[in-house]
Design goal:
The complex is a heterodimer. By secondary structure, chain A is an alpha+beta fold. Chain A is built from 5 helices and 3 strands. Chain B is built from 3 helices and 7 strands, in the order βααββββββα. Chain B is globular, with a radius of gyration of 17 Å. The chains are: A alpha+beta, B alpha+beta.
Chain lengths: 112, 154
């Protein structure tokens, strides 16, 4: 559990950034994208980010194993790494956390 | 914990009758579950309404009430995280949620509330991914909340 918690900490730290969350959202349809495509996608948002900045953010996501890189000819394509997520235990952890929050709310509600 | 179910329990400093009302009165249920249900819980019937959780107000949730055994058992089936309006979830096997109430062992007019949600082994894997994505949106929302909280206090 200790190691697991540490894994989560790394993942959440990596996601704790608006640009990186946007990159994850962009990749969450399952289609791999190149750095140029990801840079363009970000440019349409309110601030313009350079290719170098996007590359740096992608590296953080890669280290947290949220995305991985696949080669396509000369280009690197990035895709969301769903192996870890696509496990029943991960899903149950999510639902379990949601029940903890829900039970916390009923407690506050009936004890007030 | 068997891997097709989630079991939780919590001690509540309130009598069983109070907790029962919070569980089975649809307005009270909506207060803490964060959903604006449109009608009461009736065994065998569907109860539904829009979610009141910030950021998800455009989404509906629906439960099919299974059992209402006064001051002891309330259960329903539903599709957890089944929130994409474009997807028809009706062919998927729902999970079963059961709330049971007992007098707290510590006496003092308290209640032990247990919740079991079972049947997760039947949930398709793409639905699990969807749940993860939704949670991610939840995190994004949470970060916005923190951001505005901090901004207000500068």
């Amino acid at each position: 559990m200790g190691a697991r918690r540490q894994d989560y900490a790394i993942v959440f730290a990596a996601l704790g950034d608006e640009t990186r969350l946007a990159l994850v959202a962009r990749l969450s349809d399952g289609r791999p994208a190149s750095i140029s495509q990801l840079t363009d996608a970000q440019t349409t948002r309110r601030s313009k980010l350079t290719r170098q900045a996007i590359t740096k953010h992608l590296r953080v996501l890669e280290r947290a194993r949220i995305v991985h890189r696949a080669r396509a000819g000369r280009e690197s394509l990035f895709e969301l790494d769903l192996k870890a997520i696509d496990e029943l235990s991960e899903y149950l952890a999510l639902v379990s956390a949601r029940w903890d929050q829900t039970l916390g709310r009923i407690k506050a509600f009936v004890e007030e | 914990m068997a891997n097709d179910r989630i079991e939780k329990q919590i001690e509540l400093k309130a009598p069983i009758s109070r907790v029962w009302r919070a569980l089975t009165d649809y307005r009270e249920f909506g207060e803490w579950f964060r959903v604006k249900l449109e009608g009461p819980f009736v065994a065998g019937k569907t109860a539904g309404g829009y979610i009141t959780w910030p950021g998800y107000e455009h989404l509906r949730m629906e439960v099919v009430v299974q059992k209402i055994e006064p001051e002891w058992l309330f259960s329903y089936t539903w599709h957890p995280y089944a929130l994409d309006p474009k997807v028809d979830y009706s062919k998927e096997t729902p999970t079963l949620v059961e709330f049971t109430l007992e007098k707290s062992a510590n006496g003092a007019n308290g209640t032990l509330l247990k919740v079991t949600e079972s049947g997760f082994d039947k949930i398709p894997s793409e639905r699990r991914l969807e749940a993860f994505r939704m949670n991610e949106n939840g995190w994004a929302q949470q970060m916005k909340n923190i951001e505005s909280y901090v901004a207000e206090r500068q």
